[in-house]
């Protein structure tokens, strides 16, 4: 699915040092109002039928309204390197490029090529094998005088394979603007039931919770791991910097090919 969080609203304030605290390895000191405009490319290919979408926008200065200019007129192409199939993404509306025929296949590597204003940007992403998503359960915790409920995805991690996971959470149909990523470094081959801590996104009895489980390739996982470290609700970040994109050419954003499974559960 298209990621629910708006990367422009996360990335560019990082460029402008909006967060006083963040987590990364390099400090970038950029004027809030004079930072150079950068291209932001966001692309997703999934394992479920649907429309493959790549969006292209530009960053803005911190003092401007939270409206990110769409970039029209780009040539966007995705190639399946396993069989040579080429898919052209057409601009359906400003800055949004789509193709309804492209369905991701496990263990296939997809090559993204974007040409805009004489510049070229490229990326590669391999769709990993899908790990079966069994169910959702809930953990009840007491904190600050109230009952906090966190969902837990339940699934068996494959043994002797490096796996990288992302979960997108929705409560009563509303997507939670929070990044949940982890790998199997400490749980290889084990059955996993891991809490997704919601911070202020409180879940109540009777709520309908949906989780989308995505299996990512390593580069995309590292990108979202860095991005999650820049979210103040995830802890105490220390130094603002943009996550390392897997797209070459000097832009921001990411290109991801990932599996997708959804499960729902009612909180009791």
Unreliable residue runs = 12-32
Taken from the alpha-carbon principal axes, the silhouette is globular
How large, in whole angstroms, is the Cα Rg?
19 Å
Strand content: 35-45%
Structural class: mainly beta
SSE series: HEEEEEEEEEEEEEEHEEE
Helix count equals 2
Total number of domains: 2
> Which whole number gives the mean pLDDT?
86
Share of helical residues:
under 10%
Number of separate strands = 17
With strands numbered from the N-terminus, the spatial order across the biggest sheet is 15-7-6-3-4-5-2-1-16
Largest β sheet strand count, sense and barrel closure = 9 strands, mixed
Distance between the termini: 28 Å
Tell me what you see in this structure.
This protein has 268 residues and is mostly beta strands. It folds into two domains: 166 residues, no CATH class; 79 residues. 8% of the residues lie in helices and 41% in strands. The protein contains two helices and 17 strands. The strands form three sheets. The protein has a nine-stranded mixed beta sheet. Strands 10, 11, 12, 14 and 17 form a five-stranded antiparallel beta sheet that branches. Strand 4 and strand 5 form a beta hairpin. The longest helix is centred in the last third of the chain and has 12 residues.
